[in-house]
Amino acid sequence: MANKEKFMEVRHCQVATNGIMMHVAEQGDLSATPVLLLHGFPELWLSWRQQMDALAANGYRAIAPDLRGYGDTDVPDDPTAYTIFHIVGDLIGLLDQLELSRVFVVGHDWGATVAWHLCLFRPDRVKALVNMGVPFFERHPSVKPTDQFKVFGEGFYVTQFQEAGRAETSFAKYDVLTVLKKYYSIKIDNLTAPPGMEIIDFLEAPTSHPEWFSEDELQYFSEKFQKNGFTGPFNYYRNMDMNWALMAPWQGAKIEVPTKFIIGEKDTGFISFGTGTYIKSGGLKAIVPNLEVVAIDGHHFIHREKAEEVTSEILSYFSNFN
Q1: Is 303 among the catalytic positions?
Q2: Catalytic residue among 109, 117, 303, 317
Q3: What is the pLDDT of residues 106-116, one digit of tens each?
Q4: Any idea which GO molecular function terms this record carries (predicted)?
């Protein structure tokens, strides 16, 4: 495997937490300041390999789990076992098992959503946050998420992911490696397929993998998703309405944890889903008051595409709290 020497520096373990066994990769001294790294869809702990190297080299303990339903972590069969309470509960249990009272947190995509809610539910466990790709949105008081998404049409990827078995069937038309290449190479402005087409068919199949993803890494990802499939990850999307209902007691709540939010200026969400306007108009800062925003010239998988720049932003921000 490429970069085998660096992979050898990573420690792996299984941790019992919240009723599941969670696979955790770590790098750095066990006594060092801990940083919890939360991946998104469709990713794994290995998505953070560049950041883990740099964090360990700069005196931190990098902790990167495969989230519930991913990789070598358990994949519960019950689709209702993927609410935001379950996912955050996994992480609180992980921190308790590792005997860590407070940590820095870094999140991307779904990992960012989980990180926002970790900060909302248990701000006492988070020293500071660096999040990427997906901002925190105030809960709509009366309209559930799937109804809000209707404006994007039936071909919107989140809408297509709602129906059990639909996305699994369409993804199965391709080998897993092709599915991953399609997602990691997204550079379109809209994640809505034309009428009668599935989103995975709509995404272009690149002839090569992104330059920031090695063939060995893609093979590793492919093996893990081949083993478990995509149903676990899809269940995050299928619980969006349930999460909305469960979050009613937090209506109007703000996230007070110090936060740096990093967004790729070419990220589809930044361009087409109103994220850019939301951030620039102060909408995010209104509910995350202790906020810094950094825009980087890049796409959605900004932590891989611009790994060095993102890592520098993480290190510089966390240095303010040591």
Answers
A1: no
A2: 109
A3: 999 999 999 99
A4: epoxide hydrolase activity
